[in-house]
Write a structure and sequence with these properties.
Blueprint: H1 2-22, E1 36-38, E2 42-48, E3 54-59, H2 63-67, E4 74-76, E5 82-88, E6 93-101, E7 110-125, H3 127-130, H4 144-149, E8 153-160, E9 177-180, H5 182-185, H6 190-203, E10 207-213, H7 252-258, E11 268-272, H8 284-299, E12 306-309, H9 326-338, E13 342-345, H10 361-375, E14 388-395, E15 398-404, E16 410-412, E17 417-418, E18 421-424, E19 430-432, E20 434-438, E21 441-445, E22 454-457, E23 467-469, E24 472-473, E25 477-478
Parallel strand pairs: 1-7, 7-10, 7-11, 8-10, 11-12, 12-13
Antiparallel strand pairs: 2-5, 3-4, 3-6, 6-7, 8-9, 14-15, 15-21, 16-23, 17-20, 18-19, 18-22, 20-21, 22-25, 23-24
């Protein structure tokens, strides 16, 4: 019996040693051919190798250092074979090559080819970020055929994180870096592409876009359990069986799609999400602030920029969702004021009454790009943030609405008036009102409201916003904070994937 035990232990030891001998360098899929690394930065790179081995990372932009005998970059793998290193990247350029070796298996060294150095952005959210250039079935992207036809750009690289929902945090994603050309772009996020295209043209440097989005996903799904402690209504899964929805259950998309990317050095994030949270609008601004802080803390890159789209108008009664989605848009407007280094792209003129996936993805991407080019890259002369409601004053039967960020004055889409204003008196009943634009103010009157108390602009599920300043639409707003009937607010959200 004792001999048998010794034999078993010997076999186990030999098996373990054989695994050590067979170990080789493995990199997560985000580090692969055609990738873009953030320029002029200390970028993180990580993977696995032979346990306790010395891992060497050599990049061709450092060939001078190699010639004079300096170590390019070396780090030690731990007992489990995991390692992490930091590379200093140069100014924008390429293509370059990166070689990773552990000195144990020279034949298995990993070479990453056609690497560009430029600007890297994470693009996340739900279906309106995920929606590819080819559109969804029966739901096209405006002007996509022509834009795909002329899209070829070797300096624009695309990475789509495949859908993955997980109870536990994952270490890797499924996906690959692709050059921007018709075949690859048709499958890539339209909003992200139009954003990246503008950044490419304005900066004339390579751009890498990493899209991690899932249609119909909840904001809570992109957060960790610790961050969600402030929101007790969020039901954190305690086991696999608690996951009732692959894209709405809290934490599951953070674990499956975002956690593997944490630490990949980038410039910032763009975000297009909110539709699923309409029934839970009350906490959305605080939830966004918590999520963004969580992402920033996890990435360890400081206060990186976070730009997002305000959801476009749509008739949510078509999917049995209550209450008024303008309340969610109101929360998104508030989020811009409480999240540092953030900006909101207003889409009041881009919605579709019967379509929750607006076709004008070019405007969504362009407006996100304006925010980044102004706020992150400091390019002067561009309008970036929409004019914002400041206050209202009442004189007799007339309400005067004032705006901030309105140096170029307000104007209506069809002239110097708007068809989207309402007034209410003390009875809290709103009536359509006449609204005349006078420079940076709007004068609002209504014969049915002789003593105005509150004013609202485009504060409905479906409306076509018609108020602008400097080429950008004004967000829906209200001056009151009156309670809203929430008796149907807890209805389950529609599965947008089934609507496609």
């Amino acid at each position: 019996m004792q001999k048998t035990s010794h034999l078993i232990l010997t076999l186990i030891a030999l098996f373990a040693l054989s695994h050590v001998a067979e170990a080789k360098v493995v990199l997560p899929k985000i580090f692969s051919d055609n990738m873009v690394l953030q320029r002029d930065s200390k970028v993180n790179i990580w993977g696995t190798a032979t346990p306790n081995s010395t891992v060497t990372i050599a990049a061709t932009w450092n060939f001078v250092s190699k010639i004079i005998g300096k170590d390019i970059c070396k780090t030690q793998a731990n007992a489990e074979g995991k390692w992490k290193a930091v590379l200093q990247t140069p100014a924008a350029g390429g293509p370059y090559k990166i070689t990773v070796s552990d000195g144990k298996n020279t034949s298995d060294e990993v070479c990453i080819n056609n690497v560009l150095i430029g600007e890297v952005w994470i693009c996340s959210g739900q279906s309106n970020m995920e929606m590819p250039m080819k559109g969804f079935k029966n739901q096209p992207v405006e002007n996509a055929v022509e834009d795909v036809l002329h899209c070829k750009d070797n300096n624009l690289r695309l990475f789509t994180v495949k859908r993955s929902s997980s109870f536990l945090p994952k270490d890797d994603v499924t996906g690959s870096w692709e050059k921007c050309e018709p075949l690859t772009l048709r499958e890539f996020s339209a909003t992200a592409y139009y954003f990246g295209k503008e950044i490419r043209q304005a900066l004339d440097v390579p751009v890498g876009l990493i899209c991690a989005a899932w249609g119909g996903s909840a904001c809570e799904a992109w957060m960790t359990a610790d961050w969600l402690k402030a929101f007790p209504e969020a039901k954190i899964p305690l086991s696999e069986s608690d996951i009732k929805s692959k894209n709405r259950t809290p934490t599951v998309l953070y674990n499956g799609m975002l956690h593997p990317l944490i630490g990949f050095t980038m410039r910032g994030c763009i975000w297009y999400q909110g539709e699923d949270n309409v029934p839970r609008f009350q906490t959305y601004a605080e939830m966004m602030r918590t999520m963004v802080k969580g992402w920033r803390d996890a990435w360890g890159q400081g206060m990186f920029p976070f730009y997002y789209c305000q959801i476009a108008p749509y008739d949510y009664s078509l999917v049995n969702m209550k209450p008024n989605s303008a309340l969610l848009r109101e929360q998104q407007s508030l989020a811009e004021q409480i999240i540092p280094e953030s900006g909101m792209a207003v889409l009041m003129d881009c919605g579709m009454e019967t379509g929750i996936h607006p076709r004008k993805k070019n405007l969504a991407g362009q407006r996100l790009a304006l925010l980044a080019l102004d706020g992150t890259y400091g390019i002067k002369g561009l309008p970036a943030k929409s004019a914002r409601f400041k206050d209202m004053t009442v004189s007799h039967d007339t309400c005067t609405v004032s705006f901030e960020r309105a140096d170029m004055w307000i104007y209506g889409e069809k002239g110097y008036y708007s068809e989207c204003f309402e007034l209410a008196g003390a009875d809290k009943v709103f009536h359509p009102a006449k609204a005349e634009v006078q420079r940076s103010k709007v004068i609002v009157t209504c014969p049915n409201v002789p003593y105005p108390v509150a004013v609202r602009y485009a504060f409905k599920d479906w409306v076509h916003g018609d108020l602008f300043c400097d080429g950008l639409p004004v967000s829906s707003f209200r001056s009151d904070n009156w309670d809203i009937d929430l008796k149907e607010a807890d209805k389950p959200a529609i599965d947008y994937d089934k609507q496609r």
